[in-house]
Amino acid sequence: EIPTSVHLLDMKCMNAAVRAVVRMGIYVGAKVYFIHEGYQGMVDGGDNIKEATWESVSSMLQVGGTVIGSARCKEFRTHEGRLKAAHNLVQRSITNLCVIGGDGSLTGANLFREEWSGLLTELLQQGLIDEEAVQKNSTLHIVGMVGSIDNDFCGTDMTIGTDSALHRIIEVVDAITTTAQSHQRTFVLEVMGRHCGYLAMVSALACGADWVFIPEMPPEDGWEDSMCQKLSESRSRGSRLNIIIVAEGAIDRQGQPITSDFVKDLVVRRLGFDTRVTILGHVQRGGTPSAFDRILASRMGVEAVLALLEASANTPACVVSLVGNQAVRLPLMECVQMVSVCAAETEDIVFLSITAALRHPQSSFNVAVLNVGAPAAGMNAAVRSAVRVGIAEGHKMFAVSDGFEGFYKGQIKEIKWGDVGGWTGQGGSLLGTKRTLPGKHLEKIAEQIRIHNINALLVIGGFEAYVGLLELSAARDKYTEFCVPMVMVPATVSNNIPGSDLSIGSDTALNAITDTCDRIKQSASGTKRRVFIIETMGGYCGYLATVGGLAAGADTVYIYEEAFDIRDLQVRKKCPDTAKKNKTKLNCNCNENFTTDFIYQLYSEEGRGVFDCRKNILGHMQQGGAPSPFDRNFGTKVAAKAMQWITRTLKDSYKGGKVTAHLKRSLSRAAVVRHLEFPRGAGFLCFKASSKLAAVKSY
Description:
- By secondary structure, the protein is of the alpha/beta class.
- It has four domains: 200 residues, Rossmann fold; 123 residues, Phosphofructokinase domain (Rossmann fold, 3-Layer(aba) Sandwich), CATH 3.40.50.460; 178 residues, 3-Layer(aba) Sandwich (Rossmann fold), CATH 3.40.50.450; 116 residues, Rossmann fold (3-Layer(aba) Sandwich).
- The chain is 41% helix and 16% strand.
- The protein contains 22 helices and 24 strands.
- Helix 2 crosses helix 3 and helix 7 crosses helix 8.
- The protein is globular, with a radius of gyration of 28 Å.
- The chain starts with a strand and ends with a helix.
- InterPro entries: ATP_PFK (IPR022953), Phosphofructokinase_CS (IPR015912), Phosphofructokinase_dom (IPR000023), PKF_sf (IPR035966).
- It comes from Stegastes partitus.
- This is 6-phosphofructokinase type C-like.
């Protein structure tokens, strides 16, 4: 089998997919070819079609765009062009194509597959190929991967390049925010999205924008008055800036375009605010791929090769998609045909979800929010979301400072809508967080719950938060104050919470790891045969090391879950020519004796005269910094989901004038919010159950 990688559009992070296809193909013993310049290269043939090697895709992960080129091809749209392309493939016995592009490119590939038999017949009649070639190349298999920053393809939760585009947008918004606050300005940002408003909607959530316009949901008539009133109220509450996000394809109910300039003129004319327009344009397509996109593209590339190898003569063309947390194969043309149908239904779905939240009846419940454990980027976004959704649903929200320690000390105060303004982009924990467990202070915590009449608890944190809720649940027989709904939102860079595929903060940590590895490799670009030992966080959980190693292109990853011995650390002094480039190895507190220092000293000694060794301990830089777009939105969504669960549970538990969670179902009230219920799944590692159980038992 000869899987072939074809590039069609200049989307970001395609290089990671190309690298995965090439190396997975070589790994399973197949020949792999590059087709340069997309369909144009397939039609022209010649040097545009070259065999790929393992080394030809080295150092590609951190490079944006596509190194094998991309071009639109009018000739391929004609029958004559596809005939030339078929001839070029048959000459090299290529019968498997891995196509990376948008729905138009994938549709073209499927048409090419459907015409394949007829094209071979024509080539035979023209004498360009013989009967043996027809028999040998009788079937063409197609597997697609979607590369689109708009995330506008049905069947997949995320397309390659979308997360990196969000990174560019949020970087610009964060930079603009500082000048906007200084000068009390309103900024109107135009982002890409001619027919799909995903980038505009998600970036608006990630930066806490005041208003957003998307093509799928034209604003109601009179939106001008509503928007200006909203901006005016925001300024009257003390805000010094306003952010408005406009998708380039935004329209009103009459189908007329809503442009960024129109919005700016409207604000200036009605409110007199100093307003500026920023059009991001192709900045969103460029730059270094994010960690999420690198892993997504790598996973899809591996699955694409497996799909090609397992295909039979009757296997229809498929597209590799991300559904929840799994890479799956779906019928290509069914997904393409669903695009227009989904676009027509989106407006009603979005509108109903918003109105349902606004019309929720008032309640008289008090809900406390606290952070527990080590800080994780995205905690503040989760708190902001929980507070505002809770207030919108009629609850009275209370903030607890410094985790369970602040809880038993009485550091509790009411928190209102405006108190969490601007929290989305802030790193760390503005509420304060500590690792203190509640077990030794149960009586004092029960007293504070009684004093403040707290009816539900929302705990945002890591493994300490998980264990803390278990301790509170276990004490319900003794303290009836703990018989209230309790929900945990996982937030830890280590991603070691049982029951959840991903935790808030882990994506930001992964980006910190990959950024550091990219810089390390760049600093040593002029030095050959150098080994880097990089230590990440994670303790007894190897998620950061494993996924960070995949995203950074590490040669080896040592983690606690995967036992290894001295034989696995043996150094090959006679490195093959294929390994002359700089190597990066990650180590995550993997062994009591084989520490980072031990591995560094071992490699330094054994590699003397052959290669030199360097080590880098990333430390707490993985916990700091502004949260990534993924963590901002993940925190926003899971906290909103947690508040919805609390609201439902409060209704079910309210009897006889008070809230009482059933003692026999005490553990059911302490729930972990899973991210699989949301359309942005990104848990890339399935942990062994034994390692998590061991971690639970250690507490």
